[in-house]
């Protein structure tokens, strides 16, 4: 039995789902709220799907963008909860080694990178409903976001490939107090 492969595989899904959720939170909190570079629908004046334009510099536009940002954050929150539930379902022993495992954090980086790639390609390029930073050089910002996503996937993949197998300690038989 290949323990490294088993550990890596068992942590792949929870790690990727957690990475998608956490990557979405970084995008939403940092780019939408703190830097205020964009919101979900701030580039719909020249989108490719016909969504009405909701500029962030009007009250109505900001209300609609805040609603869509909230729906986006709901998705990322659910991804984190699902990722944690998947992870918990795989944790029985050696919890400390699991949380410090290169396998888990490698897969989290893969998920974050996949989030950037999928969200960047769909929202920034195909639908064009928003950009990382609108204005001059917006295409460069969008491409940089994709490159960052690809780098996260590559680093995460390499990290999980170098993970040390997690071996569970031997099971101890519990005595049944009623016998």
Q: Roughly how many Å is the radius of gyration?
A: 20 Å
Proportion of β residues? Answer: under 5%
Global geometry = elongated
Order of helices and strands: HHHHH
Structural class: mainly alpha
Count the domains. 1
Low-confidence stretches: none
Instruction: Give the % helix.
Output: 55-70%
Largest sheet: none
**Secondary structure tally, helices:** 5
Instruction: Tell me the span between the first and last alpha carbons.
Output: 36 Å
Number of DSSP-assigned strands: 0
Average pLDDT number: 86
Keywords: Membrane, Transmembrane, Transmembrane helix
Transmembrane segments: 12-35, 71-92, 104-127, 139-159
InterPro entries: DUF2243_membrane (IPR018719)
Pfam families: DUF2243
């Amino acid at each position: 039995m290949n323990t490294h492969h088993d550990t890596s595989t068992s942590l792949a899904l929870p790690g990727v789902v957690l990475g998608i959720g956490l990557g979405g939170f970084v995008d939403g909190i940092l780019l939408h709220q703190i830097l205020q570079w964009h919101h979900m629908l701030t580039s719909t004046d020249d989108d490719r799907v016909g969504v009405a334009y909701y500029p962030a510099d009007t009250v109505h536009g900001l209300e609609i963008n805040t609603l869509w940002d909230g729906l986006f954050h709901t998705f990322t929150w659910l991804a984190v909860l699902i990722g944690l539930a998947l992870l918990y379902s795989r944790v029985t022993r050696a919890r400390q080694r699991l949380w410090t495992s290169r396998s888990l954090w490698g897969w989290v980086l893969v998920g974050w990178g996949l989030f950037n790639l999928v969200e960047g390609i769909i929202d920034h390029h195909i639908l064009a409903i928003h950009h990382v930073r609108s204005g001059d050089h917006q295409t460069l910002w969008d491409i940089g976001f994709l490159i960052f996503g690809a780098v996260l996937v590559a680093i995460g993949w390499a990290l999980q490939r170098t993970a040390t197998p997690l071996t569970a300690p031997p099971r101890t038989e519990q005595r049944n107090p009623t016998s």
